Amino acid sequence: MGVLQISMVLHAKQVIRRRPPPSKRSTVADVPKGHFAVYVGEEGRKKRFVVPISYLKNPLFQDLLSKAAEEFGFDHQMGGLIIPCAEEDFIHLASRLNSSRS
């Protein structure tokens, strides 16, 4: 992995903030204004990330949301969207989205 790619991944990790799941339910106060919560990862090992709303405009993220809708729908109890991909793939996608915003 090149220096530029490592820098992009580190920047992506700063933009998407991994948050531990709350003991009960997520609240609006857990998510800063201009962001939303997503859950990424394998069944039983999902990690919560808080991402900028600007991701919703990007075709790559929209494609990922379409896959999530097909697999999980939008009626679930976790308090955020479930994204059906590996954590590493999501972080890579976030780094691509961040580089396209620059």
What features would you describe in this structure?
By secondary structure, this protein is of the alpha+beta class. It has 3 helices and 4 strands. The chain has a 4-stranded mixed β-sheet with strand order 1-3-2-4. Helix 1 packs across helix 3.
List the helices and strands and how they pair.
Elements: H1 3-15, E1 17-19, E2 35-40, E3 47-52, H2 59-72, E4 81-83, H3 87-101
Parallel strand pairs: 2-4
Antiparallel strand pairs: 1-3, 2-3
Give the DSSP E fraction (strand runs of 2 or more residues). Answer: 15-25%
> Given the structure, what is the number of helices?
3
Quaternary arrangement of the chains shown? single chain
Major sheet, described briefly?
Answer: 4 strands, mixed
Amino-to-carboxy terminus distance: 21 Å
Number of E strands: 4
Percentage of residues assigned to helices: 40-55%
- Radius of gyration in whole Å, from Cα? 13 Å
In one word, what is the shape? Answer: globular
Order of helices and strands: HEEEHEH
Structural class: alpha+beta
Query: On the 0-100 scale, what is the average pLDDT?
Result: 74
Strand order of the largest sheet: 1-3-2-4
- Which segments are poorly predicted (pLDDT under 50) over 5 or more consecutive residues? 3-10
Task: Give a quick precis of the structure.
This protein has helices spanning 3-15, 59-72, 87-101, and strands at residues 17-19, 35-40, 47-52, 81-83. It has 102 residues and is α+β, with helices and mostly antiparallel strands.
